[in-house]
Amino acid sequence: MELTAEDCGAALVIRVNAARIDAAVAIRFKERMRELAEGRAPRVVLDMSAVEFLDSSGLGAVVAVLKLLAPAQRLELAGLTPAVARVFRLTRMDTVFTLHPEVPADLRLRPAV
Amino acid sequence: MGPMPGDGRGPGPATGPERPAAARSILRLRICGDPQGVRAGLATATAALAAAGVDAADAGIAETVLAEVLNNIVEHAYPAGPGPIGLRLVRCDATGAIEVTTLDLGAAMPGLTLPRGDPPRVELPVESLPEGGFGWFLIRHLAHGLAYRRRGHCNRLRFRLGGEATAGG
Predict the structure, then answer these.
(1) B165: which residues sit within 8 A by CB, 6+ positions away?
(2) Pick from B39, B120, B132: which is nearest to A92 by CB?
(3) Residue % of chain A over a pLDDT of 90
(4) Which residue of A has its CA nearest to B137?
(5) Which ipTM value was assigned to this complex?
(6) Given this structure, which CATH class describes domain A3-107?
(7) Mean pLDDT for the stretch of residues A54-75
């Protein structure tokens, strides 16, 4: 479960460099997110554009990260691919998170390719 | 003479009377019931669906449902450690539906019934949001004709994917 964090001033951008957040990695994902994000910027944007598949364990882990960072930090999600977006939509977790089509431009060092 | 022959050892010869005439077997697979085994099984299943001409969107829905079903078996039927899971995918030529069968030798469904899969509650303060209970909701939302049976030591779950009014989002 490779995650990379980039400090972008007011926000911490964490990118998931894995195609799946599933039952095999859900616990590690949650622990790694805690290590990278806890006590850092109040706004945390999770770039999920590389994630092609998310199961209910993965969804539960993302919700768990939202809960463990609150209330001092806010978790936002960016770049949900279609299959991942469907799981959020069906479970209505899309109403719980702030979702961005991609990492907001003011948080990107390089222009999108 | 025994009342419960066969069926208890994973996928066996297809001798059941209920097999539709115009159906093609897409996959018969033995999966190791642990998270890595489920991952490998899903990769094999999605490849088999693609090879059978199932379009990417339907294959994506199938992967979600299969993941939830297989994860449930790993977590709840085999809580003490991995056990075997049989997976069978059959395509009905007339409707295009995928008929899925899973077999396992683990614990029975509580009360011998399938969970209701109520929609997750999201109108809650952040600290009270659910971190689980999504699996059966997704299964029931995306699959049709769910049927569970326990015979001897074997759990069998059957359901269909696609082939009729697709559950929208």
Answers:
(1) none
(2) B120
(3) 88
(4) A91
(5) 0.92
(6) alpha beta
(7) 97
